[in-house]
Design goal:
By secondary structure, the protein is α/β, with parallel strands linked by helices. 30% of the residues lie in helices and 25% in strands. The structure holds flavin-adenine dinucleotide. The site of flavin-adenine dinucleotide has 36 residues, from strand 2, helix 2, helix 3 and helix 8.
Length: 471
């Protein structure tokens, strides 16, 4: 075999095995399309291997650890006492996390096989829009396809003044550390930096956040981000807003300047740079494909068609929001369009969840966004403080709430936002309400189980109608 180039022809070629690509390939396989998936690293992509899943695993471990640390001598806790502080072996935690990602990776491989998708392990490089070559461990393979789905995803943005390497790490390395850094400096207060920063704070790191803007989580409205800021402050995270990192000094401390241009340094054992992610558009022959770009992203229409016939692109490669569920939804749609279904990517909303403590969910329009579009609205906001289940979960202390935004004229729901412990688990109901075009009366007329946090959603709708019961 070696020396010889294997030539494969297929109906659908998917490049990238993240939540965009692997879902597209499984769906194409289910629809009976002859499909090949090429993945250069690990099936599962950023999301399953070094993103969503491992970060949530670390957050869960940190939460457990913090709960135990609190029980060590704290009179204010639930009557649970530990007589010694808990200890953490982060290397073991990381092995547990790696076990989860390995399980998911194996699961994706099995699902692809079941859908009769052929997988090729190696990095695809395109020579023209429909042909790529892959160096596999068994030798070179050339693949030609009638349809190509690009799903190469994204990579962390590097700061030229703080290039990755040594103690300067991206989220990928932060999820595989073998010990808890004593002093962690996080550059960038978006959701990835704050999710990881709060987890390490709970595990005992001294955490300092440096953010150029004047507030954390700039993609969420301030009412949602404020409880997170308070909880970070309460946990002892130092925050420098309107400050920018300048580099490292000789001792490895981060040099930065504040809004007045005054320089300061923050000692650091690890510097986690989370200033965003960028589409992976280099190194695989995009330039040979002659597809149009939209800024740094590959340009697509509402069916994820690129400017080149039968070349499709999905997920982080094509734009915001760079979220796993958006990538998957696009992947599923493209497979169906190739199979002849009529589909368009026009969701009523794409939920965004921030797994900080407390968590944030936002879908559809915030009150300010609705008003900016000239929509007359009514809103109903219901506090966790008045929800029994939140009290039993100690979740009310952070000032959590659920807010429903509806059109005044017909009560059609246009947006839902929430902040509080476990609100991520309410996001499915929020999405369903928005996607099905629910009106406030639909929510009001739906019996929500007691005692659950979802009652706060029900009450939010009642409040917007002017007759909340528990407030
Ligand atoms: C720390 C962190 C936490 C996150 N948390 C969340 C979250 O909670 N919720 C959420 O929705 N999103 C989250 N995300 C974002 C989410 O991971 C991405 O939006 C999602 O993975 C995008 O999917 P994708 O399929 O477009 O690309 P990716 O998941 O990036 O997959 C692309 C794949 O393509 C492969 N590839 C690239 N080029 C080639 C080539 N030439 N040949 C072969 N293979 C190639 C790569 O190896 C990779 O496996 C998080 C990201 C990070 C980093």
């Amino acid at each position: 075999m070696s020396g010889m180039t294997e030539v494969l022809k297929t109906h659908v070629l998917v490049v990238g095995g993240g939540p965009g690509g692997y879902v597209a390939a499984i769906r194409a396989g289910q629809l009976g399309l002859d499909t090949i998936l090429v993945e250069g690293d690990t099936l599962g992509g950023t999301c399953l291997i070094r993103g969503c899943i491992p970060s949530k695993a670390l957050i869960h471990a940190a939460e457990k650890f913090a709960g135990m640390a609190k029980a060590n001598g704290d009179k204010g806790s639930l009557g649970i006492r530990l007589s010694a502080p808990p200890a953490i072996d982060l290397a073991e935690t990381v092995r547990w996390k790696d076990g989860i990602t390995a399980k998911l990776n194996g699961g994706v491989a099995a699902l692809l096989k079941k859908a009769k998708v052929k997988t090729v392990a190696g990095w695809a490089k395109f020579s023209d829009a429909k042909t790529c070559s892959v160096e596999t461990k068994d030798g070179p393979v050339t693949i030609t396809a009638e349809h190509v789905i690009l799903a190469q995803g994204s990579v962390p943005v590097e700061l030229p003044i703080l290039p990755f390497g040594g103690n300067v790490i991206s989220s990928t390395e932060a999820l595989s550390l073998d010990s808890v850094p004593k002093r962690l400096v996080v550059i960038g207060a978006g959701y990835i930096g704050l999710e990881l920063g709060s987890a390490f704070r709970k595990l005992g790191s001294d955490v300092t956040v440096i953010e150029a803007l004047d507030r954390i989580l700039p993609l969420y409205d301030e009412q949602l981000s404020t409880p997170v800021r308070h909880s970070l402050e309460k946990a002892g995270v130092t925050m420098h807003l309107q400050a920018s990192a300048l580099g490292l000094d000789a001792s490895g401390a981060v040099r930065a300047k504040d809004k007045d241009g005054k320089e300061f340094t923050v000692p650091a054992d690890k510097v986690l740079v989370t200033v965003g992610r960028k589409p992976r558009t280099e190194g695989w022959g995009l330039e040979a494909m002659a597809v149009d770009m939209d800024g740094r992203f590959v340009k697509v229409d509402d069916q994820c068609r690129t400017s080149m016939r039968n070349v499709w692109a999905i997920g982080d490669l094509v734009g915001e929001p760079m979220l796993a569920h958006k990538a998957s939804a696009q992947g599923e749609m493209v497979a169906e369009i190739i199979a002849g279904h009529r589909r368009h990517f026009t969701p009523a909303g794409i939920p965004a969840v921030c797994f900080t403590d407390p968590e944030i969910v936002s879908i559809g329009l915030s009150p300010a966004e609705a008003e900016a579009q000239g929509i007359e609205i009514v809103t109903g906001q219901f506090p966790y403080m008045a929800n029994g289940r939140a009290l039993t979960l100690e979740a009310e202390k952070e000032g959590g709430f659920v807010r429903v935004v509806a059109r005044k004229i017909d009560h059609r729901i246009v947006g839902i936002q929430a902040v509080g412990s476990h609100v991520s688990e309410l996001s499915g109901e929020f999405s369903l309400a928005l996607e099905m075009g629910a009106v406030l009366e639909d929510l009001a007329g739906t019996i929500h189980a007691h005692p659950t946090l979802s009652e706060a959603f029900h009450e939010g709708a009642l409040k917007a109608l002017g007759h909340a019961i528990h407030i």
